[in-house]
Amino acid sequence: MKHAVRTAALAALLALAPAIAGAGEIVIPLPGGASPQTSRVAYDCGGYGTVEAHYINAPPVALATLSLKGEFLVLSNVLSGSGARYAGGKYIWWNKGNKSDLYDLTMGEDSPPVASCTASS
């Protein structure tokens, strides 16, 4: 019985191995060997400082990671009427062309953005 439990535990661990990378990494297997398209953009957000965005597109999934004020965020693309809208935790990052707005949902859904940003050249 103990051997069967150990074997089952080892099999479960091996099944998870592709998704577990080195410390500080997350690996997401993509179907059909798809390759993600990535881009990095630095934004000037005025008094909010510089925000570094890394966009990762692997249709139908699109993600954005943001580094801002010592925080690291992972956001997922969600439905929007125009532009690309990403949501994660308490934040919304709404990108339209070279402009992006950062919203803090804890301030209320109708609140203005906490930062209005422009892509650095």
From TrEMBL:
Keywords: Lipoprotein, Membrane, Palmitate, Signal. Residues 1-23 form the signal peptide. Residues 43-106 form the C-type lysozyme inhibitor domain. It comes from the Bacteria. It holds the Pfam family MliC. This is MliC family protein. It comes from Ancylobacter koreensis.
